[in-house]
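Here is the promised in-class demo. Please do not try to memorize the tokens; focus on the logic of going from shape to residues.
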């Protein structure tokens, strides 16, 4: 009796389908990973703006009864100095940075109001304005 030995293997069309499917999954993974990373950077921006806001209101204004013309780590000593630098490495009010502080109604370095802003990647700008 003759014995037939068949090798079981994938055909070229089967391999192409598997490769196409794997490629599609890889593309979807990297798109989603980019979205998750951007949302994480946005949350860091919101956290930094909130920290600056509460330092301005609860510490600086409560003590001085005015707002500063500009903010930095020497003005807001109660927060981590790294919070003044955005996730891309730009300091607050830098041309390409995503954080900005704009003081208004100022006289002799003492201001009555301000706007803190973070430009976000996945949402509209995150804005905090003076409370008092």
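The designed amino acids, position by position:
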């Amino acid at each position: 009796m003759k014995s037939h030995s068949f090798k079981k293997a994938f055909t070229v069309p089967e391999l192409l389908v598997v490769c196409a499917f794997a490629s599609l999954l890889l593309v979807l993974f990297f798109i989603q990973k980019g979205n998750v990373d951007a949302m994480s950077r946005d949350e860091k921006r919101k956290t930094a703006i909130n920290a600056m806001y509460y330092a301005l209101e609860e510490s600086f204004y409560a003590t001085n009864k005015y707002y500063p013309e500009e903010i930095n780590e020497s003005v807001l000593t109660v927060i981590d100095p790294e919070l003044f630098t955005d996730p891309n490495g730009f300091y607050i009010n830098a041309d390409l940075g995503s954080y900005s502080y704009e003081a208004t109604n100022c006289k002799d370095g003492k201001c009555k109001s301000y706007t803190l802003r973070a430009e976000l990647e996945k949402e509209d700008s995150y804005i905090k304005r003076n409370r008092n």
